[in-house]
Amino acid sequence: MIRPPCAALGSPIEELAANKPRAVVSGGAGFIGSHLCQALLDSGMRVLALDNLITGSRENLRTLEGHPDFEFRQSDVNHGIFVGGDARYVLHFASPASPPQYDANPIHTLKVGTVGTMNMLGLARAKGATFLLASTSEVYGDPLVHPQPESYWGNVNPIGPRGCYDEAKRCAEAFAMAYHRAHQVDTRIIRIFNTHGPRMQVSDGRAVPNFMAQALRGEPLTVYGDGSQTRSLCYVSDLVRGVLGVLERGDEMPVNLGNPSEVTVLQLAETIIRLANSKSEIVYRDLPVDDPKQRRPDITRARTLLGWEPEVSLEDGLVRTLEYFRSVI
Ligand code: UDP
Q: Does the C-beta of 219 come closer than 6 Å to ligand 1?
C-alpha cells in the first residue's frame, strides 16, 4: 500500500517524488547497506539511509549524495527512530558484522540486534510498512548440519566471543516473528552468508579484505588454523538482487541468501594470491574461538520462492573485489 504524502506539496516534481515508495534503511552507509540503497533508488524508490557511522562510512554513499530521492541521516537506531512522512519498506541492516568489529563493540552489537530491531519494527508498524531483517548464517553457529537449510536451529555458544552477534541476530529473528504474529506486521528475514565486494573496509578483519590487502601489499596471508574450515562466498550484487526478491515475493519465514560454492579458507587464500599475481606467502595463526568449521547455504527455498540464483562465480567475484582493493590500497 502506498501511503498518501502527509504534507502539502509544492511543485509537480515534489508530487512526483512523493508518489514513489519510500524505503528506510538502517546501516545504509555500510558495505551491503550502501549497495542496497543504490539498488532501491535504481528500482524507483525514495531512500532514507540511517547510520551511526560506527562501522559504516559516508564515503560509501559518495555516489548517492545529491541524488534527488536520497537522504542520509546520521543516527543510532538504538536510541529511538523519528521518521516523518510515509515509508513502504523498513530494512534493518545496521550492525557491526565482522568478528573483530563485534568483538570491539559487543554491547552495541547486542543492542542493535535487539533494541535496534524492536525500534525498526515499531517504525514499520507505525507506517504500515513491510519490514526486512538482515539476519545471518551465524544463527547456525558452528553447524552440525551441512549444508544449512533454514529449518536447522543451529549450534551457537551464547557465552563465546561470537555470542554477542549470533544471539542478537537470533533475538532479532524472534522479534520479527513476534511483531508478525502479535501485530500482523508484514515481515521478512534473510540470512546472509559470507558476502564480499567493493566498499568492504580494508581493516574490516574478515578473510577477504585481510587476504586481499595482504596479497596486494606483498605481505604474508594469515590463515587461521590449518585453513581446512570452509566458507561459501557470494558477490554483493547477487546478494542485493536476492534482497529485492525477498522484499517483493518473500513471506515471514527466513530465506538463506548466499552462494553455495564452498571452498576451504586455504583454497581461498591461494586463489587470491593467484588472482592478485602476488608473491605473498601463507602463514598460519591460531584459529579463533568458536570459528565455524564449515558453512554452505542450502538455497532451495530462495530458488523455489524467488527464482533466485547467484550469477557471479567465485573467481569473477574475487576479481571484481580485488579491483576495488587495488583502488584503495
Ligand atoms: N580467516 C583467516 N584469516 C584471516 C581472517 C579470517 O583464516 O585473516 C578465517 C576465519 O578464521 C574463518 C574464515 O576465514 O574461518 C572466514 O572468516 P571471516 O572473518 O571472513 O568470516 P566468518 O565467516 O568467520 O564470520
A: no
